Amino acid sequence: MAGVGYMAETDPIRETDGGTCALARRRLAEARFAELAVTDRKTGAPTVSRIALVPEPNGGRAGIWPEF
What 8-state DSSP symbol labels residue 42? Predict the structure, then answer.
């Protein structure tokens, strides 16, 4: 039955090139926050925390972690 409930299998991982790396660097440089997600071991409940990102002197990014 062509076209009914059929999805072609494709690899979601694409080749990384210079443009992709430049885009990733730009997005990291522009980011002001990020999220950390964990699952509670006892209950299985998910938890997400928003953290701030600040530039390091060498141009990298450092997270400011909230108190848990």
Answer: T
